[in-house]
Amino acid sequence: MSEEESEGPAGEFSWSGELVDGWIPYGPGKATYANGDSFDGNYDDSKRNGKGKYTYANGAEYEGNYSQNQKTGYGIMKYPDKSTYEGAWFRDMKHGEGKYTYPNNDIYKGEWKNNIRHGTGTYFFAMSMSQFIGSWLNGTYIAGQWVFRNGDVYEGSFKKNKPEGKGKFMFAANKTTVFGKFADTRWTHGGWIRTPENVLEPKEAVRKLPPPRHFTPVQDRSSQPCFVTPMRFT
């Protein structure tokens, strides 16, 4: 849905509340707009200012702070698809710290910039029970950890939300770590270290490098980590 709110200038909405000079809405009250939206909260200088609740005709709701008709400060937005956002806003955009719960029960908690995940944050995948913990750039995960339900962990760089570049993968079951370069979700070259039973120096580990492998999806309930789980971000 569009997060844009139709402004309610005088003459385009009905007002139940105090009027200054007989026509300027002021203070607490309720505005009902021509498009079916409504606002129950504080008006100042004919604009939404302060706390209030905005109900959209399509069923969406915003409850929180306003400044000059725009969502600014702390607020909670409930969307028609049952997703919710709770956190900081600036000029009608998610901006700052916030938590977004998606219709499939995925959760992102962290920093936002201009309605996009940007900065430090954690994305939890409800289906696979795995999570990203790290850095985001313009909505894309670029570096940090991918922690899996079975305790396996990938740590390193990402491209298009997939492991790519320098990194390492730590298997919880056999305490083996593979390190080196990853591309297109595959471990392409590097070495491996098994601890604590058999610790290999990096140079020796490179000589003992197993063939590149493609990690299998979590959906098949295998014990292997998922590097190919479909990811849909909104």
Automatic annotation (TrEMBL):
Coiled coil: none annotated. One of its GO terms (cellular component) is membrane. It comes from Ceratodon purpureus. This is Uncharacterized protein. Pfam families: MORN (PF02493). PANTHER family: PTHR43215:SF16, RADIAL SPOKE HEAD 1 HOMOLOG. Keywords: Repeat. It comes from the Eukaryota. InterPro entries: MORN (IPR003409).
